[in-house]
Every structure is written in C-alpha cells, then in structure tokens.
Amino acid sequence: MHGISIFPGMGYPLEDSLKYLEEASKRGFTRVFTSLHIPEADSALEYEAEAIAEKAASLGMELTADVSKGYMKKAESIGLKLHALRLDFGFSPEEIAELSNRDSFRIQLNASVLDERSLDRLLSIGLDPGNVEVCHNYYPRRDTGISWEFLNKRNDFFHTLGMKTMAFIPSLSGRRGPLFEGLPTVEAHRDIPPLVSAQHLMKGGTDLVLFGDAIASLEELDSLSGIRPDVARVPIRLLADEADASALLSGVHHNRLDPADYVIRSEESRLNKKSKVSPSNCIKRAAYSVTIDNNGYGRYEGELQIVKKDLPADPRVNVLGSSLYGRLLIDMLGPGDAFEFHILKDRM
C-alpha cells in the first residue's frame, strides 16, 4: 500500500491534480496526503482542497491533511472528508488526546520528533493509541533529511506500540516548489530513483510509503507497482549494445547462501542459461556493475553477478550494465536474499 501527495493552492492546475489521482488509483495507490498550511499556498487552497477530497473519496482513496493549530479551524470549516488529520505544531497534549478520541477521523503524530517521554504523557491523559498513526516529516531544504538509521530506530519504537508508520520519498521529475529540491524523509533518498528509496524505507520498517512531491511521473508510479518486501527490485541501466540482455536478467535471483565478499552471485543463473554466452563488453567492472560470465569461464558460463567493489576487466566476464542507483538495496542483500532487476529506459 502506497500513497501520493497533492498540494492545493500551490499552482498546480486542478485538472492535472485530479487526473493524477486517477492515474495513481489505477496503479494501486490508496492514500493521499495534502497540507492545508503551506505558507506559499494561494487563495485557491480551499476550493481545490474540496475538489481533491471529493475526487479521492470517489476513487476509494484515503485522504490525510496536515494542519497546524492556527489552521485547524480552517480545516474544520472546509469540511473535508478525511481519513486522518496530521497534527503539526501548536497543539497542546490535552488537545491531541481529545482529538484522538473523536470518531470522525484518525490522527497522525509526527514520527520524526515524538519521543517516548512525550508519548507516555499523551497516553497518561487519555490518548487513544488505536486511533493514532505516526508519519515522519519530509524535508524541503537540501541536507536536512534524517538518516535511515534514525528512521529505523523510530519505526521500531512505534511498532512496539502497535502504531503504523509512514514516510516520504521524492520524485525526480515532479518536484514541488518553492525550492524544487525534492521532499524526502531520508536525506540519502533525495537524488535517487523512487523505486530504490521506497524499498529502502520499507526495509527500515516503514509501513506506508508516500511520494512527497507532486506530481510524480507515470513511470515513477509504475516503478512502485508490485514491489514487495521479500524481493529487492534493483534498477539497472544497460549498456547501449546490451539491449537484448533482458532475457539474462529476467526472473527472481537469490544471493548464494555462502555469499562472496566482492560480488553478489545469483544462485539460479547458471541453471537458467538458455544459450551460449559469447565474449562482449569485457571492460573494467566498476562497483555495482552487473556481469555475466561468458564461455571463456568454462563451467561458470552464465553466472550472473553484481559487483560490490571495483574489479579489473576480465576477458571471461561480460559487463551488461550498471546498478549503481540500487546500491542502497544491493548493500543490504544477505545470504539467500531474493532480488530481481528493473531495466531503466535510458542506456549507458
């Protein structure tokens, strides 16, 4: 289950936003995040928010609105049909506890700053944990996102309380102003493909991944469709003259149970070899290159590898392309872990 973000009053044509909802819904996205208190939003915010909420409801998508204390009355006056209200700054503990006991919507708390002491205080004054979700921040300013390790630690804490966690990934094509630097939760995700950052969040215990930026490209939406926690989907850019390599890369692979130090070795690749592998592109193997052993390697012919460190050229090894974009996922592959390849459209 994944989500998108839409920002009324930020200059996006309403027609485009409504179409974006339709495209995301068609691809299995079920959640929508919006904010009702962006300082740069214009006077169209209320009208567009109403239209977006109505469209989301018609598609069966659940809408969460981010509000601060100063904008709470505006949110109530608009009368949006909401799944959840994300409470930003300005709310007292008593107000948060009271809102959590309403039946009309769930509340979301800020997972990036809510600590154990604050949560204990809220629980002691009547917070209903069964009506609470937690959602990390996104960080518009470059270099200010949190670390994956911090996110993982916070998520583990909230899971012990039975709370679902959410976090954001940036789009590389549809970045939101005024900075246009992407809206990630984790800083390391700011400039990498959403396919990778989404899976990296999931491996850090994030239950729901949302695009922070609007509007992500259809290709980016498609790349998230069908990803699953038990199989890492690794992007690869093929060399220009290896356009036919998809047959060699297809299917699910498993890292060997006796993992090599320098490479990821596909357990199945030699067994799945369908034809002779002739020498081609026997060039230097830069870190995160994807290679296949050719017939010069004898019984190893057909072995598929992902290189984890720079290795020299070998006339017995063909370089198919690069999975450098997927390094965060590759570095986490352990013994027996499953992976598959997602071929990017652009070539090396």
From TrEMBL:
Question: Gene3D superfamilies in the record, alphabetically?
Answer: Aldolase class I, Cyclophilin-like
Ranges for domain 6-phospho-N-acetylmuramidase C-terminal: 243-342
What organism is listed for this UniProt entry? Answer: Youngiibacter fragilis 232.1
Highest taxon of the lineage: Bacteria
- The identity of this protein, by name, is Cell surface protein
Query: 6-phospho-N-acetylmuramidase N-terminal domain: which residues?
Result: 3-225
Q: Which Pfam families does this chain map to? A: MupG_C, MupG_N
